[in-house]
Write a structure and sequence with these properties.
This protein folds into three domains: 2-177, 3-Layer(aba) Sandwich (Rossmann fold), CATH 3.40.50.280; 198-417, TIM Barrel (Alpha-Beta Barrel); 436-554, no CATH class. The protein contains 23 helices and 17 strands. The chain has helices at residues 18-29, 49-59, 73-88, 102-106, 108-113, 126-137, 190-196, 218-229, 244-257, 275-287, 305-314, 328-334, 341-353, 371-384, 401-408, 414-419, 433-444, 446-453, 462-474, 478-484, 488-502, 519-526, 540-547; strands spanning 2-8, 33-39, 63-67, 97-100, 119-121, 148-151, 166-168, 200-203, 206-207, 240-241, 263-266, 294-298, 316-324, 357-364, 388-393, 507-509, 515-518. The protein has an eight-stranded mixed sheet. The chain has a seven-stranded mixed sheet with strand order 2-1-3-4-5-6-7, sandwiched between helices. Helix 10 runs parallel beside helix 11 (305-314) and helix 14 packs across helix 18 (446-453). The chain starts with a strand and ends in a 7-residue tail after the last helix. The structure holds cobalamin and iron/sulfur cluster.
Amino acid sequence: MRVLFVYPNLNTQMGFNHGLAAISAVLKVNGHETRLVNLNEKLPPVPSTQDLMDLIAEWQPGMVAFSTITQQYPKALELAQSLRAAQATGALELPPLVVGGIHPTLVPGEVMGDGVWDHVGRGECEMALLELVQRIEAGESPDDVQNFVSWIGGVRPSASPQAEQWRVNPVGEFPELKDLPEPDYELFETDRITASKGGWFSLMSSRGCPYRCSYCLNHKIIDLYREDLGRGVGKLNAFRFRPAHLMMKEIRTVLKNHKGIETFIFDDDLFTQNVEHALEMCKAYEESEINIPFVVNAHVKRLDPRVAQALASAGAKILKMGIECGSQRVRSKVLKRHMTKSDIIETVESCEEYGLHTSAFVMIGLPTETRDERMETVDILAESRVGRFRCSYFFPFPGTDSWQMSVDAGHVDLEQLAKQTDFTWASALDFGEEENLFIAKLGRCFSWFVNARMDHFGAAPASARYRTVVEEILAMDRATWEAFEPHVSARDAELSAACIEAGELHYAIKYNDFMGVRSDFFLAEEEGREWFTASARPTREEVERVQQGVEVRG
Ligand code: B12
Ligand code: SF4
């Protein structure tokens, strides 16, 4: 069968969709054909609805299958509704419309209730979609395929769909990664994507995560599989790895087929969590003489020194970690992210000892978070002097525990949220006008706030410069701020240039509008020098002296 995938990836980061690459590979090795309509502004021209209809009419797929995370769902729905409207007038013959991915997995009933889809996939669907394709091709009943929510008897109601009309089929086992074929990266315009990501190429060597952070999909995935398979979490095989030799084979295929790859990024939830797998991967990578720097994700609770050492030796460039919030209360009670301030500081220190540049994710505007707690997030970065950080406005994904917390705390205006299409530039939660304005300023000028606080934890002459500008923006009313906001990047460049001239360590906005990068790192990169970190951080004794007021910085 011909399967046409649609990936409505607008107003968000660009990249592959690993889910589609995996599913497409399974379909292809089983004799099916696949194509992709990928909607992203960075891959112009963006196909229009008419282009999609023309392709369906011309290529005549046996299925049109959408993949969406939450932010992409409204566009997927809009496209599907247009296809149904054209079908209703007789202008277009449509095969079954299927949707899967994170959003349908989290809220399958809501998605089915939209009434446009024939089948809604939950969880990991490599084998399930293959079975659905085979059933449809063989003319067999497709309403009881594992993982899918499907209309009973295959009949989609013309109006007001009700839950009694669909069947929720339990999910099947998680696929073993060693049994899956190499991902079909050729489904995408891989070279264009790589070029527009500055030579970064994303890989995955594992799936799953043992933690249960309230804002992430993992706890919901575990609950879903535990309920459907009727087994405890330890027997679900949720946290899986692709053997290192298969990963190296995959990397060689990628390098053979594509030019311009300068950095590999392992997008595994937590590359370093399983020590054995991480060590095997590093060893194989080093022995394969791939010689391309790579980037991984780690949890600050778990970075075994052997893994840090092996990563450094194999050529890891950046180690990314979720710090998320500086407040212990918010981390443990709201985010369910159980780690202490010392875990964070020690992991950053340990990485830098091994020469690994650290990158932290933080979020602001969390449910029930106070202004003081937001400032604790600024402080943990100012104190740890992490290599770089990415600040995001928190977004509560429907179906997660943090969604319910946000609703219970009265921060969610459902009408407003339904209209929001861009989650990068504004918070989706409502904390009242005064705090909303503060959050907007903090998020956009995060590195200025961090720079301004650095001298509370050790020598940092740049702090005085940034304190002035932070005071300036804090005094702005909404209209003045909105007029100033488009000039933030230019002002940041001026401030950074002055610091560089004066030889002052600081963070500057680099690579994207919400990333603060430490100057010793980006200067070394710009000058093509080896980067060395030891001098960037105050010693613990120095932090203690400054904290006790023995030394006054300014
Ligand atoms: C890798 C990754 C990225 C990468 C690549 C993203 C990509 N599109 O592939 C990068 C770094 C670019 C990225 C960016 C972002 N990400 Co991200 N990312 C992930 C991560 C860690 C892994 C995703 C993955 O590849 N999994 C492995 C594949 C095999 O699984 P899968 O994609 O789920 O696909 C399976 C099923 O969903 C299903 N399926 C998928 N498509 C289809 C289609 C059909 C028809 C069917 C039947 C089934 C089906 O079958 C697939 C195979 O098993 C997840 C967390 C996670 N553990 O899933 C977050 C996650 C997807 N990201 C998330 C977010 C929020 C983002 C950003 C918005 C962050 C930001 N503020 O910028 C951006 C958006 C970028 C984008 N356009 O997707 C959220 C999404 C939450 C939600 N409810 O929507 C997640 C779930 C993390 C979280 N917070 O819980 N991300
Ligand atoms: S550690 Fe990361 S991947 Fe794991 S549950 Fe928490 S947020 Fe999700």
